[in-house]
Design a protein that fits this description.
The protein has 341 residues and is of the alpha+beta class. 30% of the residues lie in helices and 23% in strands. The chain folds into two domains: 5-202, 2-Layer Sandwich (Fructose-1,6-Bisphosphatase, Chain A, domain 1), CATH 3.30.540.10; 213-340, 3-Layer(aba) Sandwich (D-Maltodextrin-Binding Protein, domain 2). A hairpin with a 3-residue loop joins β7 and β8 (176-181). Bound molecules: 2,5-anhydro-1,6-di-O-phosphono-D-glucitol (AHG) and manganese (II) ion (2 copies). One manganese (II) ion binds next to β5.
Length: 341
């Protein structure tokens, strides 16, 4: 925690957002409806954290017995978290529509509620394979502005990541934390489990430019493209190899948890495209995984590319579009991107 933050005392998420709302001089003024949106999402994440914490006692573990549009089997918590986010956000008047990993198409705000100016996208439960083994999981969200006019459709969501009004994630781990960017840096809030409020615990998140840590699922090595194999071989070669230093490896298989470690102490995260499903450009989804994480990482001084270009510049063609992802400490992301050139 920074000295300046400690000196300001205990700052709740609400106070943090209200102070931003008043911050007109900085050109950073937060619209009240965006403040409401963030507060509602944060409240929903608190509720998801509560469900996650019940585990076997609440009957929330295991398969839901259904599949999503991605062809993945849904876990009970994928479905529960999706429902919590929909119910929390549909009536407040701040949104025009929502979209989710767990829904085939967009969810327009029902006609009997007022319609707002924002679009919300989410990965309700990230790292589903870790739910039943009690390893950190999370929720990822992205906020876009909606063009005025008729009922929002999938097309309204197809905006480049650089147009995001806000992005964030919650991580459900030993601590429950909310990480948020509104385009003016990255703030971290920790859930006070006694008062049930989000308290600011870091507002100066910076990803070190250099790192000695990488994250990739090594079991896919035989399916990678040449630039990725070359780069990872160089990482593994360590001090006597071309990079001249030893690297450590971590792979949690929850993007939220891997990105959170990188925000905290640096590192490079890679989920490249590979030959397993050649028609798909990677595993992770652009609109509700790569874009929000790319926005957060850039706001913390890191970089995010698909190997060829900045993630946030990609013009999406489809709601559930996939993308290769390289993100984290700037100098390593620049290196792997250059290897693709
Ligand atoms: P989700 O649980 O939302 O489908 O996302 C899982 C993603 C991501 O969180 C993680 O980085 C990656 O899948 C792990 O994939 P592997 O199991 O292929 O390592
Ligand atoms: Mn995910
Ligand atoms: Mn998910």
């Amino acid at each position: 925690m920074s000295d300046t933050l400690a000196a300001r005392g205990r700052i709740s998420l609400t106070r943090y957002l209200i102070e931003l709302e008043r911050d007109a001089d900085e050109g950073a003024a937060l619209p009240p409806s965006l403040r409401l949106l963030i507060e509602v999402v944060a409240r929903a994440c608190k509720q998801i954290a509560h469900e996650v914490g019940k585990g076997a006692l609440g009957g929330v573990l295991g398969e839901a017995g259904t599949g999503n549009i991605q062809g993945e089997a849904q876990k009970k918590l994928d479905v529960i978290a999706n429902e919590i986010l929909l119910e929390a956000n549909e009536w407040g008047g701040h949104l025009a529509a929502m979209a989710s990993e767990e829904m085939a198409t967009v969810f327009p705000i029902p006609g009997h509620y007022p319609r707002g100016e924002y679009l919300l996208l989410f990965d309700p439960l990230d790292g589903s394979s870790n739910i039943d083994v009690n390893v950190s999981i999370g929720t990822i969200f992205s906020v876009l502005r909606c063009a005025e006019g008729s009922r929002p459709s999938e097309n309204d969501f197809l905006q480049a990541g650089k147009l995001q009004a806000a992005a964030g994630y919650a991580v459900y781990g030993p601590q429950t934390q909310l990480v948020l960017t509104l385009g003016h840096g990255v703030a971290v809030f920790t859930l006070d489990r006694e008062t049930h409020s989000w308290i600011l615990t870091d507002d100066q998140v910076r990803i070190p430019e250099d790192t000695k840590e990488f994250a990739i699922n090594m079991s896919n090595r035989r399916h990678w493209e040449a630039p990725v194999t070359r780069y990872v071989d160089e990482l593994l070669a360590g001090r006597t190899g071309p990079l001249g230093k030893d690297f450590n490896m971590r792979w949690i298989a929850s993007m939220v948890a891997d990105v959170h470690r990188i925000l905290t102490r640096g590192g490079v995260f890679m989920y490249p495209r590979d030959a397993r499903e050649p028609e798909k450009p990677g595993k992770l989804r652009l609109l509700y995984e790569a874009n929000p994480m790319g926005f957060i990482v850039e706001q913390a001084g890191g970089a995010a590319t698909d190997g060829a270009m900045r993630i946030l510049d990609i013009e999406p063609a489809k709601l559930h579009q996939r993308v290769a992802v390289f993100l984290g400490s700037k100098n390593e992301v620049d290196r792997i991107t250059a290897y693709h050139a």
